[in-house]
């Protein structure tokens, strides 16, 4: 299946211009929301995804949010940019997640949850680090669309799903069936699109922290923890919180800060579901 994976990656279309406009806007630390609204307003899918997320149980804002301007005010500029770029990239990959037995909306929820965890937890560690990780957190599982397509193409969906049910370990199954983890596939996709090494490298090493270059190691560690928590099949399950907590302890992060952040997020979701 390795050959099929590489073919799928190489056949991906170039990113839409809106992604580069958003990235440029983000890099100049712009606070002009009028310009941001203008960029996002060109892409109806971005608007739909942002409004879907801002109205989700994850945030529990009162009343239905119906305008992009209000969504940006509530989510914040950097969070909104991460969602907008993430939705464009996911649409560019285009596919389904039948091999994982989840819907695309479930994937969007898990991706937004990942950015929300970074926004809530990492802001208490380092504010600049939080801003740097919002986008990689949202994007890091995008390779699952390619993996799902290849699994289906090779008529291995049922077999793959059975393995997922038995092991509850997506990375193990991905490597067993395709030869690559989702992290490696995602990193290769983003490398092809010439995305920043600050996105590509931390994602690439989430499954191999020991080999990660030191300057990116803390980012890869945080992304690994977030990925465990936001498993697309079992987001914020008790078992995954326990697994993530083990990594928090191993990497020397503040346990109380981590658990308090997760409790805040879970409480909001529980109150609105």
Overview of this structure, please?
With 273 residues, the chain is an all-alpha fold. Helices cover 70% and strands 0% of the residues. It has helices at 2-10, 17-27, 33-40, 44-54, 68-75, 77-93, 104-121, 127-139, 144-153, 157-167, 170-178, 182-192, 197-204, 214-229, 238-250, 255-271. It is globular and about 45 Å long.
Largest sheet: none
Mean pLDDT: 93
CATH architecture descriptor text = Orthogonal Bundle
Helix content: 55-70%
Task: For this entry, give a set of tags.
single chain; 273 residues; mainly alpha; Hypothetical protein af1432; 16 helices
Topology record:
Blueprint: H1 2-10, H2 17-27, H3 33-40, H4 44-54, H5 68-75, H6 77-93, H7 104-121, H8 127-139, H9 144-153, H10 157-167, H11 170-178, H12 182-192, H13 197-204, H14 214-229, H15 238-250, H16 255-271
Quick recap:
By secondary structure, the chain is mainly α.
């Amino acid at each position: 299946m390795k050959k099929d994976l590489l073919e799928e990656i190489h056949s991906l279309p170039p990113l839409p211009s809106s992604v580069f406009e958003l990235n440029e806007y983000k890099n100049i630390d712009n606070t002009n929301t009028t310009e941001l609204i203008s960029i996002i307003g060109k892409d109806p899918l971005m608007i739909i995804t942002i409004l879907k997320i801002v109205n989700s149980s994850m945030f529990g804002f009162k009343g239905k949010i119906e305008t992009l301007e209000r969504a940006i005010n509530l989510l914040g500029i950097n969070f909104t940019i991460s969602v907008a770029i993430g939705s464009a990239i996911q649409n560019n990959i285009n596919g389904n997640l039948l091999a994982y037995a989840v819907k695309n909306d479930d994937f969007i929820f898990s991706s937004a949850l990942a950015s929300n965890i970074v926004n809530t937890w990492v802001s208490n560690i380092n504010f600049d680090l939080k801003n740097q990780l919002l986008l990689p957190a949202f994007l890091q599982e995008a390779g699952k669309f390619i993996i799902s397509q290849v699994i289906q193409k090779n008529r291995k969906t049922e077999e793959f799903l059975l393995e997922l049910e038995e092991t509850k370990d997506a990375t193990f199954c991905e490597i067993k069936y395709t030869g690559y983890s989702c992290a490696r596939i995602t990193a290769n996709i983003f490398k092809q699109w010439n995305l920043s090494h600050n996105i590509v490298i931390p994602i690439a090493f989430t499954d191999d922290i020991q080999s990660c270059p030191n300057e990116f190691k803390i980012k890869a560690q945080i992304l690994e923890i977030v990925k465990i928590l936001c498993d697309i099949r079992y987001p914020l399950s008790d078992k995954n919180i326990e697994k993530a907590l083990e990594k928090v302890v191993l990497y020397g992060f503040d346990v109380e800060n981590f658990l308090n952040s997760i409790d805040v997020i879970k409480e909001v979701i529980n109150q609105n579901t």
